[in-house]
């Protein structure tokens, strides 16, 4: 019997500006697993992650994205996030004036509300344990106390509870509390931005987390810190999918499956040994083995142009 939090991608075709980038991707991710998607630049790795989150620029032309037993192709990005899908961006945006603490508390509040159908207004949402409960009758809020009740229903996490959660996650990731008083990514180094993405993942506790190039632009010490942080979050409830084109961060992760993408297809799969072989030999041997002709972009990347 399939687990309710499995992510299953079937024959996924995705267009960007009328050009097909993904040509039939199949992927099955179960809770607790760590998957790695590798491939040269331009192979479609980031297109896959953006399509899974419902980015409007990426159009699914055929195939299915199934999560928690339902096809989510038509769900908006926020509803996918509320269900428990998370994407750590390759280049996170800075938001001056919004502290990390306020951002994370707001994000967690919305995550706890769960997937809210459009016909249900936010003020009519309550939560029992991990299950969202919907009150569709206005009268159930009760006369003159309706406004107060609505505010209570919208406040799904107290400041005290959030401080406790944040303190635990900072301790787990070995991060200083001063970090959370800064404005979101404003003046952050590349390593700090990536660590903040990992902290978001820790606080939100998604069911499936996609990390798009978490090692991009980082020195070896920053890669180690980010890699160890990701590995610390691994558990039986959370699946992690790391998207990268190099092996360095993988030495800090306990990897279950490696998938190699080229030119919009998954062309080879294996265990962690496959990533080590790619580190030693590059991608040329895979192309030769499968008879794949390199694109101009791939040739330029490999010769360093």
Helices and strands, in N-to-C order?
EEEHEEHEEHEEHHEHEHEEEHHH
**Nearest-integer average pLDDT:** 85
* Number of structurally distinct domains: 1
Structural class: alpha/beta
**In what range is the share of β-strand residues?**
25-35%
Identify the CATH architecture.
3-Layer(aba) Sandwich
Using the alpha-carbon principal axes, give the shape: globular
Rg measurement, Å: 21 Å
* Number of separate helices: 10
- Which CATH class applies here? Alpha Beta
Low-confidence stretches at least 5 residues in length (pLDDT < 50)? 121-149
- What fold name stands as the CATH topology? Rossmann fold
Helix content: 25-40%
**How many strands, what sense, and barrel or not for the largest sheet?**
6 strands, mixed
Number of strands: 14
CATH superfamily, by name, is P-loop containing nucleotide triphosphate hydrolases
> How many angstroms does the end-to-end distance come to?
49 Å
User: What is the spatial order of strands in the main beta sheet?
Assistant: 6-11-12-3-13-14
